[in-house]
């Protein structure tokens, strides 16, 4: 988990409070790969996905941002050109601040800089793990690992299990695990039949994360 030092969070909130917020509807682009970022985006509410598009138009999801995140971090901290799309998964509220002002703020507030670098390190670690899974694991195992990742990071405890607070469609599962939509659908249907998954409208429910984890081959 990223550093949740109350002082760091309070100072970051205070910095971005000086700038106006913007809202985006589900499915709207916040930043495209071909666009030069106009500043640092601080996510107040909602969820944002970061992804790459292959030359053939296939989507490769890199990361999901939760409230309290800022992006694009590699551009912010290292001036690396942005090559990713950032899209609202749900209705989103963000605050955008000038990059130079944010960097000055980080230099003056070491606890905030530590928070930012921790988020970058955690994101890179998760990305490397998912790339390794794409190479080493079968579709069934990759689907289970993805569901456990969502349950841990975007789950809500309910009487029926851990409900994923953001939709995870079969097409998105296919994008995450590097397979076809049909194959992803078969894995989900298999897990439902075995009693590991349930549905609530468009949302998936992981009935028992420990039992699901034990299913990994």
Can you give a write-up of this model?
The protein is α+β, with helices and mostly antiparallel strands and 217 residues long. 45% of the residues lie in helices and 25% in strands. A four-stranded antiparallel β-sheet has the order 1-8-3-6. Strands 2-7-4-5 form a four-stranded antiparallel β-sheet. A four-stranded antiparallel β-sheet has the order 9-10-12-11. Strand 4 and strand 5 form a beta hairpin. The chain folds into two domains: 6-127, Jelly Rolls; 137-214, Arc Repressor Mutant, subunit A (Orthogonal Bundle). It is globular. Helix 3 (99-108) packs across helix 4 (110-136) and helix 6 crosses helix 7 (181-193). The two termini are 26 Å apart. The mean pLDDT is 86. The protein is built from eight helices and twelve strands.
Give keywords.
217 residues; alpha+beta; Jelly Rolls; Arc Repressor Mutant, subunit A; 4-stranded antiparallel β-sheet
Radius of gyration: 18 Å
Tell me the distance between the termini: 26 Å
CATH class of the largest domain: Mainly Beta
Task: Provide the CATH superfamily of the largest domain.
Answer: Jelly Rolls
Report the β-strand fraction as a percent range: 15-25%
CATH architecture of the largest domain: Sandwich
Structural shape: globular
Q: How is the main sheet built?
A: 4 strands, antiparallel
Please report the total strand number as a whole number: 12
Order of helices and strands: HEEEEEEHEEHHHEEHHEEH
Question: Order of strands in the sheet with the most strands?
Answer: 1-8-3-6
Helix percentage range: 40-55%
């Amino acid at each position: 988990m990223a550093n949740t030092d109350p002082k760091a969070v309070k100072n970051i909130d205070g910095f971005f409070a000086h700038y106006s917020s913007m809202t985006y509807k589900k499915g709207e682009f916040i930043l495209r790969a071909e666009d030069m970022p106009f500043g640092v985006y601080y996510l107040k509410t909602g969820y944002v996905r970061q992804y790459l598009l292959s030359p053939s138009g296939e989507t490769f999801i890199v990361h999901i941002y939760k409230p309290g995140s800022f992006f694009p971090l590699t551009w912010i901290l290292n001036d690396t050109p942005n090559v990713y799309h950032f899209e609202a998964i749900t209705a989103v509220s963000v605050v955008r601040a000038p990059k130079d002002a944010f960097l000055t703020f980080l230099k003056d507030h070491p606890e905030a800089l530590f928070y930012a670098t921790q988020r970058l390190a955690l994101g890179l670690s998760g990305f490397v793990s998912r790339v390794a899974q794409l190479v080493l694991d079968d579709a069934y195992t990759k689907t289970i690992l993805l569901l456990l990742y969502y349950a841990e990071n975007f789950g809500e405890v309910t009487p029926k299990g851990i409900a994923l607070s953001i939709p995870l469609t079969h097409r998105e599962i296919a994008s995450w695990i590097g397979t076809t939509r049909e194959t992803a659908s078969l894995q989900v249907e298999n897990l439902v039949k075995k009693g590991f998954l349930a549905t609530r409208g468009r949302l998936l429910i992981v009935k028992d994360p420990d039992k699901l984890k034990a299913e990994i081959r």
